[in-house]
Structures are given as structure tokens and as C-alpha cells.
Specification:
This protein has five helices and 13 strands. The chain has 236 residues and is α+β, with helices and mostly antiparallel strands.
């Protein structure tokens, strides 16, 4: 189940780019909480606290109990969106979605395969994951970090559909049950490709060399011997 963490937050009064720059310079991150019957409320949280919380999160869904201000006010929320800097990846802004612990919520939970499929291990097949996350509905207290699926029994051509996935108690899928989550495909065999006409032309014509027979070699050397004979007579 998703771990509920506590996070200290303060109301944020000043808005605008200049105010946000000053806020970050003091070590705070701008945030906002919305949802429920209340109006959206701008907040600010310490950068070190939000960084520590996100680094320790075991999944994409983080359930937070926000302690807002010094008057003891608390609001339960899900981390809806985290904006990062394109350079360095620092957290720049956080959106919190207020929820009630006794009301159903919808979320997307990562699907994680477990084990090695028989079709992959024995027959060289390829495991294909068609669904990376599963849309579900549950109470906040039943929200899982991730959903693991045992794929070890899959052979070539086998598949696991949403209806086959064993979900935690209190969790129901919000997608079509016949959607394929995992399957094992046949191994791909690459056939040798014949060269095209363009490739054959680029390679150039084939040069064939034949060994001359001994008779031809002797005939070719005879004229050279005759030319030397007259020169030897003149010297005499």
C-alpha cells in the first residue's frame, strides 16, 4: 500500500515570478492544494523536506498528510504533479490533490512483471508489456505503490489480460478487462537479404584472372630472346 507521509507546509501570500524567485532563494518550493469543497490554496514547502519525501517514495502515488501553518490544520492529499527544472532536474513546483480517506479515488499504478517467462527462457521469445500502468479505483488507504504480475508461466503466444491480474483487496480496475497487459512473442529470425541492383553495381564488375598455360608463357617470351641476338653479333 502507498505509504502516508507527513509534510509541513505554510500558506503562501505573495504571487508572481519575482515572489517565486525570492521564495526559492530562501530554500522553499511553491505549491498548491486543490480539490474537495475548498478553493485552491497556494502553499510553500521547504525544499529539503519535499526532496527527501520524493526520494523516499516507493511509487508514483504519494499519499501526504499536509500540516498547514501553526494552527494544527491538516489536509490529506495525493501528489498530483511535480514540475522539475529542465536543467539539473530540481523540483520547481508541486501540485497536491486534496482527498478524503473515506471516499473512493482513481489513480494510475505502475505494472511490474515478476519472473522470467517460459517462452523467453526456453524458446527465445520476447516478453512484450502493453500496459505500463493500470487505472484503478480504491479508497486512499488501499492505494498500492505498484502492482506486480507473475509472468513466469507465459509460453510463446500466451498473454495476460487485465481480467487475469490479481489485484489487492479493495482495488478495482477502471479499464476494459480484455486489454492485454503482457504477452510473449515468437523470436524474430532475420533472413539473409539478397543485394539490390544498386548495391551490386557499387561493388563493381567481378575480375576473373586465369593462369596462363605453359605453352602460352613460352611463346610470349620467344620474341624477346630474338631481339637480343643481333646486338651480341655487333659487339663481336
Amino acid at each position: 500500500m502507498a505509504k502516508q507521509v507527513k509534510l509541513k507546509a505554510e500558506p503562501r501570500a505573495e504571487m508572481g515570478r519575482s515572489a517565486v524567485r525570492k521564495l526559492r532563494a530562501r530554500g522553499f518550493i511553491p505549491a498548491v492544494i486543490y480539490g474537495g469543497n475548498d478553493e485552491p490554496q497556494p502553499l510553500q514547502v521547504a525544499a529539503r523536506d519535499i526532496n527527501a519525501m520524493m526520494s523516499q517514495a516507493s511509487g508514483e502515488n504519494v499519499l501526504v498528510e499536509l500540516e498547514i501553518g501553526d494552527d494544527g490544520q491538516t489536509r490529506t492529499a495525493l501528489v498530483q504533479e511535480v514540475q522539475h527544472s529542465p536543467v539539473g532536474g530540481d523540483i520547481r513546483h508541486v501540485d497536491f490533490h486534496a482527498i478524503s480517506m473515506d471516499q473512493m479515488i482513481e489513480a494510475e499504478v505502475p505494472l511490474e512483471p515478476v519472473g522470467t517467462a517460459i517462452g523467453v527462457k526456453t524458446f527465445g521469445g520476447l516478453l512484450e508489456q502493453s500496459l505500463r500502468a493500470l487505472a484503478i479505483e480504491c479508497l486512499p488507504g488501499d492505494l498500492p505503490d505498484r502492482i506486480t504480475v507473475d509472468v513466469s508461466q507465459l509460453n510463446i503466444g500466451d498473454a495476460i489480460h487485465v481480467r487475469d491480474i490479481q489485484l489487492p483487496p479493495g482495488v478495482t480496475p477502471k479499464v476494459q478487462l480484455d486489454l492485454t497487459a503482457f504477452s510473449v512473442l515468437e523470436p524474430v529470425v532475420e533472413e539473409e537479404r539478397a543485394p539490390t541492383e544498386t548495391e551490386a553495381a557499387a561493388a563493381g564488375p567481378e575480375v576473373i584472372t586465369e593462369k596462363k598455360e605453359e605453352g602460352e608463357a613460352g611463346a610470349a617470351s620467344a620474341p624477346a630472346a630474338k631481339e637480343k641476338a643481333p646486338k651480341e653479333k655487333e659487339k663481336k
